[in-house]
Amino acid sequence: MILQIDIVVIQIIVILALSPLLSGIIKKIKAFFQIRKGPSILQPYYDLAKLLRKDSVVSENVSWIFHAAPIISFAAVLTAGLIIPIFISDMPLGFAGDLIAVVYLFALARFFTALASLDAGSSFGGMGGSREMFVASMVEPALMLSIFAIALNVGSTNLGYITQTVSNAGLSSVSPYHLLAFVAMFIIAIAETGRIPIDNPATHLELTMIHEAMILEYSGKQLAIMELGAMMKQLLVYALLANIFFPWGIAQIISTTGIAIALIVFIIKIVIMGTIMAIVETSTAKWRLFRLPDLLSISLMLSFLSLVSFIIVKGG
């Protein structure tokens, strides 16, 4: 018999195990479309293992913030992962938070990462931190609004309840405001995971990097924690896309068979999401920083339109 504590342990293991795999799959698919062989899909595991074996080189001028930021960021993202439905809608820790808590946990991780980039005194770190806050000021409102359109329909901001209700509704849940919110959330996912055209995760050029600039001063075990935290956040954002808007296949009761099937369905969903994201990255170019508000404003407008569409559809 599977207990609720077992669900929590399984979810932690799934998040930690699948996050590097998803990153490796995306890199492999991007290499395929770029007519390259590319690294193995297991390469992120090897990179993390190599970093964990190395010591960290730390500047003498940093404070406790620099040392605490990797742990706080990692813990914040993992806590958000225990609230977001992955393979079962009835989350044991669902009572501890909802959509708003997830957004603030992501913001907490981002805040300490940006703060650590300033603490080291590096010009690149300060540049990356300011850019990250600039993007976040437009991403976070759109993230909340895009899911609020679905939350208003079910009458709750609890992610597990949203997933369960939309899953039970079947295809009848697909509506104009549902699709508008999904497109808005997809644009947000590009920004939240630092993908082209917002950011380029494969570069260290000072003119283009955002996330890489913030963690440029980290090395060894601390860098491994920061990298794994970024991979986990990517997985969780894709999980929101998959299980909030297309939750079919997720388990609703605790059973061994149901959980096994739900895990397989979830892996298929995130592979599809990763493939779409890789296609978007290889078919577009990195945008200049002053053009990013145009793209992120589109996401915000689509979120507003989804709310307006919900009012019109339900009011009519």
Task: Kindly list the characteristics that best describe this protein.
316 residues; mainly alpha; 11 helices; globular
Secondary-structure element pattern, one letter each:
HHHHHHHHHHH
Query: Structurally, how many domains make up the residues?
Result: 1
Mean pLDDT: 87
Residue ranges: pLDDT <50 for 5 or more in a row? none
Please provide the count of β strands: 0
Structural class: mainly alpha
Beta-strand content? under 5%
Subunit organisation of the chains: single chain
Detailed description of the structure:
The chain has helices at residues 4-33, 43-52, 64-81, 99-119, 123-154, 159-169, 176-192, 211-214, 220-245, 256-283, 292-315. The protein is mostly helical. The chain has one domain (4-315).
